[in-house]
C-alpha cells in the first residue's frame, strides 16, 4: 500500500502520462490527464549521468529571450497566455494547454507577442555539465 501511495505521488508530480500507463490505479483514485505532448526524438542524450531540469518562466508582453540554441531537446508547456517560438526558418505559437518539443541546435528565441503575460513550464534532460541554453550571435 505504501509503495502504491508513493507511485501515485510521483505520477502527480511528474505531470501528464497517458492513461494506458496507469490502468492499475484503482477506480476513483487520482489519475493524470492525457499527455499534452507525446513525441519521439532521437536527440535525447544517452549514457552517463543525466540531469533533469524543470523550470518555470514568465514572459511579460512584448519581451523576448536572447537568440540561443539547445544541445538537448527542451519540452515547453504553456500554462497561461500565448507563447511564440521564433526560429530561423519558422515561427510557432502555442496557447494555454499546448506543448512542444523544441529542436536541438536550431537558433531560436522565445517571445510574447500578446498583451498578457505568458507562463510556461520548461523540461530538459541533459548531461549536468551542459548549459540549459547556448547564446547565439
- List unreliable stretches of 5+ residues: 1-19
By DSSP, the count of extended strands is: 9
How many independent structural domains?
2
Which strand order do you get reading across the main beta sheet?
1-8-3-6
Oligomer: single chain
Mean pLDDT: 84
Q: Could you name the CATH topology of the largest domain?
A: Jelly Rolls
The major β-sheet equals: 4 strands, antiparallel
Q: Counting H and I runs of at least 4 residues, what is the number of helices?
A: 1
Strand content: 35-45%
What is the radius of gyration computed over CA atoms, rounded to a whole number of angstroms? Answer: 17 Å
Describe this structure in words.
The chain has 137 residues and is mainly beta. The protein has two domains: 1-35, no CATH class; 51-135, Jelly Rolls (Sandwich), CATH 2.60.120. Helix content is 9%, strand content 35%. It has one helix spanning 2-14; strands spanning 51-59, 68-69, 74-80, 82-87, 91-95, 99-102, 108-111, 118-126, 134-135. A four-stranded antiparallel β-sheet has the order 1-8-3-6, with no helix packed on it. The protein has a three-stranded antiparallel β-sheet with strand order 5-4-7, with no helix packed on it. The chain is globular and about 50 Å long. Mean pLDDT is 84; it is low at 1-19.
Task: Give a quick rundown of the structure.
With 137 residues, the chain is mainly beta.
Could you name the key traits of this structure?
137 residues, mainly beta, Jelly Rolls, 9 strands, disordered N terminus
List strands and helices in order, with pairings.
Elements (H helix, E strand, L loop, with lengths): L1 H13 L36 E9 L8 E2 L4 E7 L1 E6 L3 E5 L3 E4 L5 E4 L6 E9 L7 E2 L2
Antiparallel strand pairs: 1-8, 2-9, 3-6, 3-8, 4-5, 4-7
Amino acid at each position: 500500500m505504501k509503495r502504491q501511495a508513493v507511485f501515485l505521488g510521483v505520477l502527480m508530480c511528474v505531470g501528464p502520462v497517458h492513461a494506458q500507463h496507469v490502468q492499475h490505479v484503482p477506480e476513483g483514485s487520482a489519475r493524470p490527464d492525457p499527455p499534452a505532448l507525446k513525441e519521439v526524438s532521437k536527440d535525447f542524450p544517452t549514457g552517463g549521468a543525466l540531469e533533469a531540469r524543470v523550470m518555470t518562466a514568465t514572459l511579460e508582453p512584448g519581451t523576448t529571450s536572447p537568440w540561443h540554441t539547445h544541445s538537448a531537446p527542451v519540452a515547453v508547456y504553456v500554462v497561461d497566455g500565448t507563447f511564440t517560438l521564433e526560429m530561423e526558418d519558422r515561427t510557432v505559437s502555442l496557447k494555454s494547454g499546448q506543448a512542444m518539443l523544441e529542436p536541438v541546435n536550431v537558433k531560436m528565441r522565445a517571445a510574447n507577442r500578446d498583451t498578457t503575460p505568458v507562463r510556461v513550464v520548461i523540461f530538459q534532460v541533459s548531461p549536468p555539465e551542459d548549459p540549459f541554453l547556448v547564446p547565439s550571435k
